Amino acid sequence: MAPKITVLFYSTYGTNHGVALEAARAAEAAGAEVRLRRCQETAPADVVDGQEAWRDQLEKTKDIPEAKPDDMEWADGYFISVPTRFGVPASQFRAFIDTLGPSWQSGALANKVVTATTSAQNPHGGQETTIQSVYVTAMHWGAIIVPPGYADPVKFEDGGNPYGYSCTPGELDETGKKSVAFQAKRLVEYAGKLGN
Ligand SMILES: Cc1cc2nc3c(=O)[nH]c(=O)nc-3n(C[C@H](O)[C@H](O)[C@H](O)COP(=O)(O)O)c2cc1C
Q: How do strand 88-89 and strand 77-85 relate by DSSP bridges?
């Protein structure tokens, strides 16, 4: 059976949306069944509407289904991409995560493979801590974390974050896409090995 992967993202301005699209493409190419899901926008409508770039991004992704607990229960693995906010994941991601209490309690989140990516305005503005924060939550679920490490030569060209691909806005170039694809393929590979 094809491994089932949920690509879960939140994106205010499009960077993590771009990463999620690459991840979904690569996971499918690696043989997975993929659900691409976005975290619901929780910022007040007047705040979103007050920024053209934010409003445009929300409009652009309106046809991507919002993530539901079933998307997490269904999958064998998660590819998570979220922006850095003051060194940790955006609250829109956390708001979704906070709906997962019953799924966790029933044991439905255990034994999944997880990998994460992020973006931040500054290369040292919290990319590593954001990804690690996602992994801390994954550990509470009993997940198996699948970081890229330096297990592919592309990791010596993409900025070299071993926890997960990370970039600044506008930086997702061909090398970045190769890195995201490697990370997604590795996730699918390990989902398959575990055979949940
Ligand atoms: C409230 C807020 C907090 C942010 N905190 C950080 C930060 O701690 N470090 C940093 O480098 N960038 C920070 N940024 C910039 C975001 O990380 C950047 O906009 C994001 O990575 C873009 O991703 P997106 O295009 O998917 O929305 C912050 C942005 C906002 C709006």
A: antiparallel
> How far is residue 79's CA from residue 74's CA, in Å, rounded to a whole number?
14
CA distance 5 to 85: 25
Mutating to test ligand 1, I would choose from 12, 85, 93, 134 the residue with most ligand atoms within 8 A of its C-beta, which is 85
- Please report the atom of ligand 1 found closest to the CA of residue 119: 21
State pLDDT tens for residues 135-170.
999 999 999 999 999 999 999 999 999 999 999 999
Q: Which amino acid is at 87?
A: G
Residues 93-134: pLDDT tens digits? 999 999 999 999 999 999 999 999 999 999 999 999 999 999
Distance 77 CA to ligand 1 centre (A): 26
Taking domain 4-194, whether its CATH number is 3.40.50.360 is answered by yes
For the chain, the domains span 4-194
Query: How far is residue 55's CA from residue 39's CA, in Å, rounded to a whole number?
Result: 15
pTM of the model: 0.98
**What ipTM does this complex have?**
0.99
Ligand 1 atom with the shortest distance to the CA of 122: 11
